Amino acid sequence: MSGVAWHYVLKFIITGDAAVGKSSLLVRLTDQRFLANPDPTLGVEFGSKLITIPEENKVVKLQLGNKVDLCADADEGSDASRDQPSVTLKKAREVSTDEAELWAKEEGLLFVEASAKSGVNVEAAFERATRDILEKIRKGVFDDERDTHGDGSAVSIML
Ligand SMILES: Nc1nc2c(ncn2[C@@H]2O[C@H](COP(=O)(O)OP(=O)(O)OP(=O)(O)O)[C@@H](O)[C@H]2O)c(=O)[nH]1
Ligand SMILES: [Mg+2]
To answer: Which SUPFAM superfamilies match (predicted)?
Structure first.
C-alpha cells in the first residue's frame, strides 16, 4: 500500500425520515463524537472517512452525504435511489430487531444496529458495507472505472 492514499472511493448516501439521526451518524463516523443538539439539516451535509480493509490490503475513502428522504415510505422510493449504496435509518425501537432483520433479508440489504450516541457498531456498519462492495467488485457485480492517474494505483467506482 506504500505511496497510495486510497485504492477506492465509495460514495454513500445516508438517507431516512427527518430527525432519525442521519447527521449524528455521519458526525460519529467522521469525527468520533456525538452531536449534543443537532440542528435540522437544510440541504445536504458531507463528510469523508478513510477505512482500511487489512485482509484485502486496501484503503478505501468513503465520501458520505446525508439528506432527508422525502419519500414517506422507503418501499415507494424510485428504483434509481434503491440502487445506490445507502444507509437507511429506522427508529429501531419502533420495530423489533427480528422484524428489521427479516425485512433487510427480504430486501437483500445488510442489517446492522448502531448507536451514534454510544458509537457502538457505527464504524463496523460502514466497514461491513465496504467489504460487501469490494467483494461485489471482485466478483464483477459492479463495474469499476480505472482512474487516469496513469499508474493504476487508484480506482473510482461508479455505482
Ligand atoms: N439516543 C440516541 N439519540 C440519537 C442518536 N442519534 C441521534 N439521536 C438524536 O436524534 C435527534 C435527531 O438527530 P439528527 O442527527 O439531527 O437527525 P437527522 O436525521 O439528521 O435530522 P434532520 O436533519 O432534521 O432530518 C437528536 O435529538 C439526536 O440527539 C442515537 O444514536 N441515540
Ligand atoms: Mg440532519
So the answer is: P-loop containing nucleoside triphosphate hydrolases (SSF52540)
Query: The whole model's pTM is what?
Result: 0.80
**CATH fold of the domain at 8-85+95-158:** Rossmann fold (3.40.50)
What are the counts of helices (DSSP H) followed by strands (DSSP E) for the chain? 4, 6
d(CA 51, CA 16): 23
Q: How far is CA 80 from the centre of its chain?
A: 16
Q: Which three cell numbers stand for residue 61?
A: 475513502
Domain extents in the chain: 8-85+95-158
The model's pLDDT over 8-17, given as tens digits with 9 standing for 90+, comes to 999 999 998 8
Residue that the C-alpha cell 432527508 belongs to:
68
Q: What is the tens place of the pLDDT at every residue in 91-128? A: 556 788 999 999 999 999 999 999 999 999 999 999 99
Count the Cβ atoms, other than its own, within 10 Å of residue 16. 20
Distance 99 CA to ligand 2 centre (A): 26
Mean confidence (pLDDT) of the chain: 80
Q: Give Cα 39 to chain centroid, integer Å.
A: 22
The binding-site residues of ligand 1, defined as CB within 6 angstroms of any ligand atom, are: 18-24, 38, 40-41, 68, 115-117
